[in-house]
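User: Here's a protein and a ligand (LLP). What would the complex look like?
Assistant: Let me lay out the input and then the predicted complex.
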Amino acid sequence: MKYINKKFTIEKVSIESIAKKYGTPSYCYSLKKLRENINNFKQSFKSISPLICFAIKSNTNLKLIKEIKKFGLGADVVSMGELMIAIKAGINPKKIVFSGVGKTLEEIKYAIKKNILLINAESESEIKQIEKIAKLKKKKVQIGIRLNPNTDARTLSQISTGKKENKFGVNGKTFIQLVNYCKKSNYIELKCLSVHIGSQILNHKPYEKMLKAVNQILNKADHKFEFIDLGGGMGIQYNNNNEKLNYSKYNLAITKFLKNHKTKIIFEPGRSIIGSTGILISKVVYIKKNVGKNFIILDAAMNDLMRPALYGAKHTILPSLWSRKFSKKTYEFVGPICESTDKFLTLKKFQELSEKELVVICDVGAYGISLSSNYNVRPKPIELLIDGSKIKVIKKRQKYEEII
Ligand code: LLP
């Protein structure tokens, strides 16, 4: 994604031509970037040859998941719907892991029926529920137990999952008790220890701490785990932040860990695979001056991209046409929704904009469309996949009839 002849271009297609043909707001993904991200991820952990299970929650577009599947990735799912999408995309159930604290009876039954690789259980009650169904079906079900390692991921508190006050996983003591319980069960096969300490992690140190906690528990557990599922969480660079996750240091920590434990590593990355592949094209509807600020009112809103309103996340915004005429005004990019949190970014320096111009909101491939809603009865945007100069509609724009 770059400016060619001053026009913002995704692969070989200009934003202007996309907006002209498909309207706005529109999500666009670059296939080339997706390939690049997957290859980079694989390369970073080549020496430990992990099973990479794409976290479906980060992007639930069936066509994109089909592309991801072509690279041999599995899936991490957290609901029956996500499991259905993963299977529909052709992902081998033996490469699917099911996470989440509240799997219902129906969801567990479905996962067992589909013979997925692992149900990563998060409580004693859930393990008993799985056991009950397995007994009825006369099956031995492969599970993991999620450990809460009480590790601070040093990320936003809203997306931290590995501290003792978080609802996720079980503490060390309970973990050992549950291991002993599973060992006696005829219907449960305990194959995995899973952890996931949070999302958008930019420093390898929390991962090192997490591995230390896992190492300690394994030394106490007296059980041979075939898999250690380290979750996802690898952060990306939003809005020109300079911090960057050092993959080689993380890989090194895992390599050291594996010297003491002969096991297969599973990862569940979402954002690091899909985040930087996507942009949201939006049109300036109105420009409105208020005291000390100029509001750029876009046709995209918090229902299309929830991250800024929900987490105060900052996504870079760029003009579709590059000019060097910078304005000294403060611009606040907002959506049309009747909520003060419906704003994307406030900038002190941006080029002069006019009504009807296009802008691009960057790095929205992860938790963009998957967190979108129909709030204010707004139809969800179209989704397009760009491959060189080809544009494929991978999800149609919602019609009012579908939501009214
Ligand atoms: N595995 C588990 C068990 C998870 O809960 C998550 C994310 C992942 C894997 C994938 O994490 P990733 O590699 O994408 O960081 N909506 C928030 C992010 C929530 C993440 C929830 N769990 C956001 O927009 O930043």
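Summary: Residues 205-221 form the longest helix (17 residues).
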